Automatic annotation (TrEMBL):
This is Histone-lysine N-methyltransferase EHMT1-like isoform X3. Residues 214-230 have a biased composition (Low complexity). Keywords: ANK repeat, Repeat. The keyword Repeat applies. It comes from Bombyx mandarina (Wild silk moth). The gene is LOC114244203. Residues 210-230 are annotated as: Disordered. PANTHER family: ANKYRIN REPEAT DOMAIN-CONTAINING PROTEIN 39-RELATED. SUPFAM superfamilies: Ankyrin repeat. It holds the Pfam family Ank_2. ANK repeats lie at residues 40-73, 147-179. It comes from the Eukaryota. The keyword Lyase does not apply.
Length: 230
């Protein structure tokens, strides 16, 4: 039986993302499924899942055998809290550990083929991206677990110039905006990939009035685009 002080220390460790401290407490006398009366009767796993603390979630479940299907005072399990905050890495982990609630998270889970497509794009695996496109994966598929971004968004963010070229050749939509109203062009510039911004302009990206500055399609120098809207 753990003391109130130890219980408070556990929840403080979760709040501070202190994996080592949580491990020490749970390895002594603290029950991994102890509840916080102050936060909707939630367990440490609820709180870690809600906050997106993946390492803590893994520690609680794999080492200390936290109950993945335990409900808080509102009937929510950890997977639901992670889904609501779009912590999809945690959602996938909990599902792999026999959590209920797959139907709750289904709207945010990609098919296996689309998941592999985005993993290949992030890894700049042009050969695998090409194979998946040839097999029928839509070049404009969106990542349900990442703000509905396209592979073009991903390649632009990571600075994968050759992959951006391939996706454009295969018909990627340059004007498509994710859930934050950003297209690949904005993401490229925000991540200092001006060469990709130039490529998108050269290929036909049409700036909108929000684009008060840009890069030239021929150089990497910043130029005003205000004349386009006068």
């Amino acid at each position: 039986m753990c003391s109130e002080a130890e219980k408070a220390q556990l929840f403080e460790a979760i709040d501070n993302n202190n994996v080592e401290k949580a491990d020490v407490l749970l390895s002594s006398t603290v029950d991994v499924n102890v509840r916080s009366l102050e936060v909707k009767n939630r367990t440490a796993l609820h709180l870690a899942a809600h906050a997106g603390r993946y390492d803590l979630v893994a520690l609680l479940v794999d080492k200390h055998k936290a109950d993945v299907n335990i409900e808080d005072s509102e009937g929510d399990i950890p997977l639901q809290l992670a889904t609501d905050r779009h912590h999809m890495k945690i959602v996938k982990f909990l599902l792999s550990r026999n959590s209920k609630g797959r139907e709750y998270a289904a709207h945010f889970l990609n098919t296996d083929e689309v998941e592999e497509f985005f993993q290949a794009a992030k890894a700049n695996d042009i050969q695998r991206v090409t194979e998946l496109l040839d097999s029928g994966v839509d070049v404009n598929s969106v990542d349900l677990s990442d703000l509905h971004r396209s592979a073009l968004h991903v390649a632009a963010r990571e600075g994968h110039y050759d992959l951006v070229q391939l996706l454009l050749e295969r018909g990627a939509d340059m004007q498509y905006e994710d859930d934050t109203d950003e297209c690949a062009y904005h993401i490229a510039l925000n991540n200092d990939h001006d060469n990709i911004g130039s490529l998108l302009l050269k290929t036909g990206y049409i700036p909108d009035p929000r684009d008060d500055s840009s890069v030239s399609s021929d150089t990497n120098e910043s130029v005003s685009l205000s004349f386009l809207f006068n």
